[in-house]
Structures are given as C-alpha cells and as structure tokens.
User: Which sequence fits this backbone?
C-alpha cells in the first residue's frame, strides 16, 4: 500500500491582500513587453499572458520609458541609465535626458529623429537613411578692393 510523502495541508496558504485603497502601479513585462498593473507593495509580478515573472523596482525608484529604435517596442528603465537593451530585438538604445538630445527630420522619409548633441549624423530606424547633422556656419569673405 503506497504511503503519502507529505500530509495534505489542513489550512489554506495565506493569500496576498492588496492595499485597502486599491493603489496600483505599472511596469512592462520582461517577457512579452505587455503593460502590467500590480498592487503597490508587490515585489514581483507574474504576467497572465506569458507567465514571465518581472521584478518590481524598489519603492521610490524613478522609471522612464522609451521606444526601441530597432523594433519600436515600449521599454521601461530606471531613470538615469545611459543605455537600455531591448529584450525583444537586443538593440542597445541610448537613454538620454531631454536636455541631452536634439531633433532633426530624416533626409529621406522626413521622420522626426532624436540624436545626442554633438553627433555628426543619425541613422533613421524606419528607412535606414543616414542624415548628416550640419552645422550652419556662414563664412564671409572680406575682399579688399583697391581704389
């Protein structure tokens, strides 16, 4: 006759109770990149779509978002990071603060592009055209004529 390895629990395991005020926060799933809502105070979130477990950043951590230049997926990262690697296409994206970037229209498809100040060119993620960042310098030539 088989003997059970462990007795069946007589009381159900404790369940997580969300905060009474229903406060929620959000983050992007580390697996499928869907937006996840979770109760404040949770340390990790299991995605209902792909079952990936995503760690919740510590309270008070400022998060930022950007769109991946390779696959246009929304990425979330801790504010202050200098680069963010996309988990979908593995593109390494520059994560710049607003005061470190400038804008130019793509020379081919006219898509608005962002680039880091000081860059000499920027490659469009849509059409792959490389737009030169020109510095407008007007040169005046002084010509002395003899009377």
Assistant:
């Amino acid at each position: 006759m088989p003997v059970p390895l462990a007795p069946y629990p007589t009381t159900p395991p404790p369940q997580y109770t969300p905060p009474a005020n229903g406060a929620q926060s959000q983050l992007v799933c580390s697996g499928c990149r869907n937006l996840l809502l979770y109760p404040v105070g949770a340390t990790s979130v299991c995605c209902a779509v792909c079952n990936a477990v995503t760690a919740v950043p510590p309270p008070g951590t400022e998060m930022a978002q950007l769109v991946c230049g390779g696959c246009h997926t929304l990425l979330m990262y801790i504010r202050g990071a200098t680069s963010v690697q996309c988990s979908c296409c593995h593109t390494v994206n520059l994560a710049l603060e607003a005061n470190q970037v400038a804008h130019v229209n793509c020379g081919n498809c006219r898509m608005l592009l962002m680039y880091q100040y000081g860059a000499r060119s920027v490659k469009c993620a849509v059409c792959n055209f490389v737009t030169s960042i020109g510095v407008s310098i007007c040169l005046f030539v002084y010509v002395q004529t003899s009377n």
Q: What stands out?
A: The CA atoms of residues 103 and 114 lie 5 Å apart. Confidence is low (pLDDT under 50) at residues 1-18, 136-141.
